[in-house]
Structure formats: C-alpha cells, structure tokens
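INFO worker-7 received task bundle
INFO bundle size: 2
INFO processing item 0
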Amino acid sequence: MTRGKSKADGPKKADTKLAVKKGSERVAKKPRKSKADKDPNKPKRPPSAFFVFMEEFRKTYKEKHPNNKSVAAVGKAGGDKWKSLSEDEKAPYVAKAAKLKSDYTKTMAAYNKGQSGGGSRPPAAAAAAAAAAADDEEESDKSKSEVNDDEDDEEDEDEEDDD
C-alpha cells in the first residue's frame, strides 16, 4: 500500500512565531538607567496635613495603648480617626501643613539658587545666604541705577559733541 503525502511528511519548516529562544539567542534587555545620586543637603518635602496629624496621634495612641507594637494598628486607627474628623477639626493640621510647605518653598528656592551657583551648602546656611543676598540685591540695585545714571550722562555728552 502506498501512502499519500501529508503535511507531516513534507519538509520541516520552523514556525518562527512559535519558536522559543533559548540561552544566547534571547534578546538582551537594555540596561536600566541608574538613578541620579540623591543630594543629602536637599530639603525634605513637607508632610501633608494627614502626616502632621499622625505625628500627634501616634504619641497619644502610644500613651493609651503602651503594649501595642504593631505599626499597622497605629496607622489604621489614625486613618480611621482622620476620616471621622470634620473640616473644622482638621483645620489646625491643614494650617500647620501649609506653613511647613511655605517654609519648604523658601528653603528649596535657596537650595536651587545655591545649586546654580555651583556650591552645595546645608539648607540652613543656604537660607541664611539667601537672606544676605536679598539685602545685597537692594544695595546693588541702588548702585546699578547710580552707575546707569553716570553712563547716561556720558552718552548724552557724547551725543552733544557729535552735533
């Protein structure tokens, strides 16, 4: 008996869609970019109103529950308490968070100014330097206007000579 040709008897072609790549045939993944090193002098972001509340809540919770060692339990209780507070009760925490944020923006401005200047200084020194620079700017503005007035006078004299 003769057999008819079937697809299985035909030439074997590797199905490229189903081929599994092994070992060295695998496509190498691109190496991840390494994160830039963190500057230890950079000011930390200010806490939100909730975290300001949690600082106080943790202290009171530990006084009431001295045997509790679970951080999760403290967090859960704090979250539940925060949700139950009214807007009026949250107001002092929101106000304190807003004050901390404004302080942070000032220190960040001083920090960024110090970074563009090339030197890295601690935030306190940078803030003090920024305050001193603000005083210097007022004086330098006055002196610049005096210098500009002198230059204007000289230009006026030059123009009169040309006539």
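INFO item 0 finished
INFO processing item 1
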Amino acid sequence: MDTTEDTPAKTVDIYRDTWVRFLGYANEVGEAFRALVPVSAVWGSYAVATAYVTADAVDKGKKAAVAHGDNPGKTTRVAVAVVDTFVWQALASVIIPGFTINRVCAGSLYVLGRATKLPLPVRKWTTTAIGLSTIPFIIKPIDRSVDLLLDSSLRKVYNEEEKHK
C-alpha cells in the first residue's frame, strides 16, 4: 500500500521551515556579543536580520501574487501580504528581541559589576552567555505577543478592507 499519494505534500517555506529562519535571530546574537565585539559587528547583525525580514516579506508578496492570479483586488492582497509579513517579522524577529537581549545583557553586566569582584573580561563573557541563553526563552512569548498586537490593530484594518470588496 502506497501512502505517499494519500498525504498531501507539505510546502516548505524556506524562510520559516529551514535553517534560513536562524538569520532572523542574527541581531539577538549580535546584541548578546555587544560587550565583546565592535559596534559595527552588532550593526552588521542587524543588517543580516533586516535582510531576512525583507526577503521573507518579498517572498510572501510573490506567493500572494501567484495565488491571486488576475483576480480583482490582487494588488491590495499582495500589499497586505508584504506589509503584514514585514511588520510582523520586524517586530518579532528584530525590534523586540533585539531590545530585550540588549537590556538583559546591559542589566546583567551592571549587576555583575556591582555584585561581584569578577574581572571585566569574565563579566563580559558571562553577560554574553546570559544573553545567548535567553534567546530560546523569549522567542515564543514575543511571537505570540506580536500576533496579539497585530490581530488587535493592523490586521483589523486589513479585515475591514476585505469586507468592503
């Protein structure tokens, strides 16, 4: 019995289902290493993450264009796909996590400086380790929060546009 014909093939989204997704976390890694690397390296990590966000938004726009063919409202639907993806990714992958890791690292470096007698290089490496270990714990809560934020704001605008078509 061949079961490959019974199950539909899952489409792989290169920006969400492959190693490429980790490029969206580049700025969190950059923020974790901020105490150890030049600021230009941190800004470079933001460039990588922003390129990922932009590429994902463009990809979703192309997919929306193909899905809607020559139907009326195609331009609006493509724009909604691009804007929604870009705003979601910018908030969930770059802005909020970058700020969070930055503050966790700054706070931990400050506390380590006040509460311990560890030499500065040890404090900086400890801060980096704390920042890196924080990343897995902040991803899902931030993703859910951004979903709630967009569902209660920007996506209501999109849905209102769809009702008027």
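INFO item 1 finished
INFO post-check item 1: Residues 11 and 17 are 9 Å apart (CA to CA).
INFO post-check item 1: The mean pLDDT is 90.
INFO worker-7 idle
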